Amino acid sequence: MAGMTSPDISRGGTSGEMFKMNPKDLEKLRHEGLKAHGSVSLDLGTDSGSFTTDAALAMGVEDLNPTPDTPACRDYTWVMFTTMWTSVLLSPTSISVGAALLAMGLNWWEALVAHLIGSMVTVGGLILMAWPGVQYGIPFPVLARSAFGLHGAHFSTLSRGAVAVMWLSFNMWQGALGLYTGIGVAAGKGFLNWVPIAGQGNLTLTQLLLLIGFGGCHGLLIAGGLRKSLKRLMNFAILFQSGLLLGVLIWACRLVPIQQTLPNEKGTGSAIGWLEAINATTCVWSTLIMNVADFSRYCPTQKDQAVGQLLGFPLQYTFVGWIGLVAAGATSISLGTQMWQIPEYFSVWSAPWAIIGSLILALAVLVCNCFANMLSPMNDLMNLAPSKFNFRYCGYACVAAAIGMCPWITFGSQNTFVTTFLSGYGSVTGSLAGIMMTDFHLVRRGILFFGNLYPKGHKAADGSWVKPEGRPPTYDYNCNWRAILALFAGIGPCIPGFAMTLNKGLGMPVAVTELYSVSFFYALGASSFVLYVCTWAFPPLGFSRAGYKIEYSYEAAGVQLDNIETAKSMFDGVVSKITRRKNASSTYA
Q1: Which residues of 415-444 are buried (b: 16+ CB within 10 A; e: fewer)?
Q2: Confidence (pLDDT) at 446
Q3: Cα-Cα-Cα-Cα dihedral of 249, 254, 260, 264, to 10°?
């Protein structure tokens, strides 16, 4: 029962006696508890409340508890993953990045190659970070506890959540702009220019009300359950999204023949320009590298998540980006201005097509946000106080924050979008992803203990609260200083470059700006290296050095638990469970 139980559980009562139970008996006990109490949490050591029933999970309820290894909950097969990524990538975000690469000086084939390389790097990170989600059924905020410690994880979850809210803000603004432009083509200037708002650039009250109303649509999805809403939206929207993007491509080719559009751009001709473009295309979905466990926890096997992401990500991302750069090149030649956002296209379309396009764009934005930009910050906020916060109210707070970020100012141009926004947060996501991948795959060798991840105890079948007797081999309980040091090593050197993008007059050395242009890759490598070296040089309690490798130490763990045999039993139980799951065939073929 991967992601459901750890080898030892505590029996309620005064003695707190530890005992062993095989997975079949534990599953039987869990179902008996469900019949008697409606919900029950067994052996989770969870601080996120009682365990949710399979039926409730299937209806779209999400929490921080491990996802049970049952067909009702593990239903994200490779087909689902492929469809999910395809639907998400057929979005204004992917088109905007393709168009923005031309603003960086790349020609069409350089931008295409940058997209393809960036997509392959991204999908590699996605597969590695999805692994623990499938193996243990845990979401990103819980996985972060293994690398950063219980309280140290808050930085990683909140910073990733903040970036997700920025993307949520950008996409909501794209959807609202699309509706504004599409309806405005038919309604006229009275609708477009209704009540300008002073001090907010070109913002009008019409745009603001559309943005708030579009945010309300996101709230309805949250109220209906994100997991359920995501599956329904994808199956409904994917054909309409494909039609819109093909329509954009046909329209661009009618403006200027493609054989004239593509050779028109000269290209950057510099290695740093290439690297900056690859860095930008990788940064776009780097946030999903970190929190893909929020989705892979519903996946039955590692094969499903790996195959689904390989089939659903690289080619789609590259193709949609190519459409964006074709449209940008065509508008630059034909209209004299390079349009890099889909809503801008509607202003030169006929009224019927503009309205249809704006509605499909709004649907595409809802799908993208539902998958990429809402679930993660909702989980991240829940992680602050799981027993006190309500999951859906956290979602409403994220939508309100996205509107409050004033996206009409934040995302005002394609250069700002690429060089400031994408590269700026790329150093943060690169550093966090490097730390978490190194911790799980190189330091811990894929072995996690639920006693570390859910340290506050668990509810027994009779409703009593049982506290754990001790902690198995682990990092420092509250905060892993090695991970924090690695984080600064990755982010720190990129800060001067970020400051220079905000103020060109700072006069930083060329090396600073060049390092910043590859912020994701630098941060990923530097943080990974520093974490591993610090863990090897100063092994935490429960670990020891073995040459250039790091291994778990029963003896060190036994000191912590006052019982070496207990430590070895806990370790062997987890390894046994992992082996059983690795050797199991696909249960839900």
Answers
A1: ebbbbbbbbbbbbbbbbbbbbbbbbbeebb
A2: 84
A3: -60
Return d(Cα 413, Cα 432) in angstroms, integer. 28
Mean pLDDT, residues 322-340:
85
pLDDT at 518: 86
Written as one letter, the residue type at 486 is A
* SS3 label, residue 573: helix
Q: Which tens digit of pLDDT belongs to each residue from 530-540?
A: 999 999 888 87
Tokens of 434: 């490097």
Pair of tokens at residue 550: 């790091």
User: In sequence order, what are the residues at sequence separation of 6 or more whose Cβ sits closer than 8 angstroms to the Cβ of residue 125?
Assistant: 286, 289, 433, 437
For 369, residues 6+ apart whose C-beta sits below 8 A from its C-beta are 167, 168, 171, 172, 218
φ, ψ for residue 126, nearest 5 deg? -60, -45
Closest-CA residue to 72 (of 131, 31, 132): 31
The DSSP call for residue 266 is -
Of 578, 587, 412, 434, nearest in space to 519 by CA? 434
Residue scoring higher pLDDT (546 or 191)? 191
Residue 70 gets which letter from DSSP? Answer: S
What does the radius of gyration of the chain's CA atoms come to, in whole angstroms?
25
Burial of 4 (0-12, 13-18, 19+ CB in 10 A): buried
Residue 532's nearest CA partner among 589, 493, 489, 588 is 489
| Closest to 494 in 3D by CA, of 393, 425, 543 | 425
CA distance 386 to 454: 11
- Residue (of 76, 78, 51) closest to 62 by Cα position: 51
State how far the alpha carbon of 395 is from the alpha carbons of 155, 223, 246, 379, in Å. Answer: 19, 9, 33, 9
DSSP 420: I
pLDDT above 50 for 167: yes
Distance CA 92, CA 150 (A): 37
Higher pLDDT, 575 or 241: 241
pLDDT tens digits, one per residue of 195-247: 777 656 678 888 889 999 999 988 888 887 776 667 777 778 888 988 998 99
pLDDT of 430: 92
Instruction: Encode pLDDT of 127-164 as tens digits.
Output: 999 999 998 888 898 899 889 988 888 888 888 888 88
What DSSP character marks residue 443? I
pLDDT value at position 21? Answer: 35
149: tokens are: 């410690």
Rounded Cα distance, 1 and 24, in Å: 9
Can you tell me the distance from the alpha carbon of 377 to that of 291, in angstroms, rounded to the nearest whole number?
10
pLDDT of residue 32: 41
Total-model pTM: 0.77
CB of 63 closer than 8 Å to CB of 382: yes
Neighbours of 397 (CB within 10 A): 16
